[in-house]
Amino acid sequence: MGRAYFVARRYADAVEAFKRIGAPDAFHHAFLAACHAQLGDAVAADAHAREVLRRIPGFSFGATLLPILYYKRDSDIAHHRESIEKAGLPLGANGS
Q1: Which of 9, 55, 6 shows the shortest CA–CA distance to 89?
Q2: With contact defined as beta carbons under 8 Å apart, do 95 and 82 qualify?
């Protein structure tokens, strides 16, 4: 549900959905960082971004996250890329 809310730009709802995951992985933290960045909560975005980089030191949007995203519209990819960048995570290969 968190991913669907994120795409719908319902960031607060996405955060609540991701909070229900008992053991969030690095990708969940990346979504949470992006959501908090869009909500203007730089402290929470930074905390989740640091957790992503702790778990995947070479993380980048283009090399690590983009390959597992299955967006149909380019605008959704652009939205996600912008959100990741706003959260302070690296864009990397093909993330421009």
Answers
A1: 55
A2: no
| 5 Cβ neighbours under 8 A, 6+ residues apart | 11, 13, 14, 17
Is pTM beyond 0.70? Reply is: yes
Q: H-type helices in the chain, by residue range?
A: 2-7, 11-19, 26-39, 42-55, 74-86
Residues 6+ positions from 10 with CB-CB distance below 8 Å: none
Cβ-Cβ contacts under 8 Å for 42 (sequence gap 6 or more): 36
Please state, in angstroms and rounded to a whole number, the distance separating the CA atoms of residues 86 and 90. Answer: 10
User: What's the pLDDT tens digit per position in 32-48?
Assistant: 999 999 999 999 999 99
pLDDT tens-digit map of 3-16: 999 999 999 999 99
